[in-house]
Amino acid sequence: MAEIKKHLSNARAAGRVSLADHAPAYRYGALLFMLIATFFFIGSAPQGRWQPLAIVLVESATLLVALLASGARRLIVIVSLVFIGVSTLAGLSAGISGSGHLATATSGLLVLLVIVAPVTVVRGLVARRTIDLKTVLGALCLYVMAGLFFGTFFSAIQAISHHQFFVQINHGNPSDFLYFSFITMTTVGYGDLTAARGFSRTLASFEATFGQLYLVTVVALLVSNLGPAFRRNRDLQASAQADE
After folding, report:
1. Alpha helix ranges (H) inside the chain
2. What are 64-93's pLDDT values in tens digits?
C-alpha cells in the first residue's frame, strides 16, 4: 500500500506535472470543436472585405484554446498574443479600407496554428505520461491539425514555386487546399483535384500514408488502452483511500 501511495504522490509532484496535466478533458474537447469550426470556416467562408478579419478571429481563438489546453510556456503565449493583436489590427484595416492584401497576416497566424500549437499539444501529452480521455482527445486534435498543416504546406508550395499545384485548376485557393488535404489524408480520393508535379504527388502520397498509419497505430492504441488504464487508475486511488 505504501508503494501505491508513493506512486500517486510522485505522479502529482509539482516538479513533474505540467499545466496540461491539470487541464480538464473538456479543454481538449473544446480544442477539437474549434479545429473543426476552423476547418469549416476556412473551407466555406464567403468572399468579402471582412473575410480576412473573420478568419483571423477564428484562427486566433483556436490557437488560444490550443495553448490553454496544452499548458504552453508563457513566452509562446506572449508571442502568440502579440501576433494575434497585429493580425487583428491588420484585419480591421483591411476591412475598413477594402484592401485584400492580408494574406501575410492570415498565413502567419495559420502557421502558428498548424506548427506551434501541435508542438505544444504533443509536449503537454507526453509530459502527462497518462492514457485517459484527455490523451485520446488530444490525439484526435493532432490528427485535425495534421490536415491543416498539409493544406498550408500545399498552399505554400504553390506560392513559392509560382506553378499550378493542381492538374485541374490554374490557381488553388485555401478552400481547395484544405479540401484536397483532408480528402487525401482520409484516402477518399475523389479525383476531382490531383497534384500536378512530382514533389507535390510525393507529398500527397506521404500525407495519405501518414493519415492511415496514425489512425491504425496511435489512435487505435490509445483507445484500446483507455479502458484498462481507467480501471488501473481507479483501483490505485481506491487502494490509497482504503489505506488511509
Report:
1. 2-11, 19-22, 25-44, 51-70, 74-97, 103-111, 117-128, 133-161, 174-185, 198-213, 220-243
2. 898 888 888 888 888 888 888 887 787 777
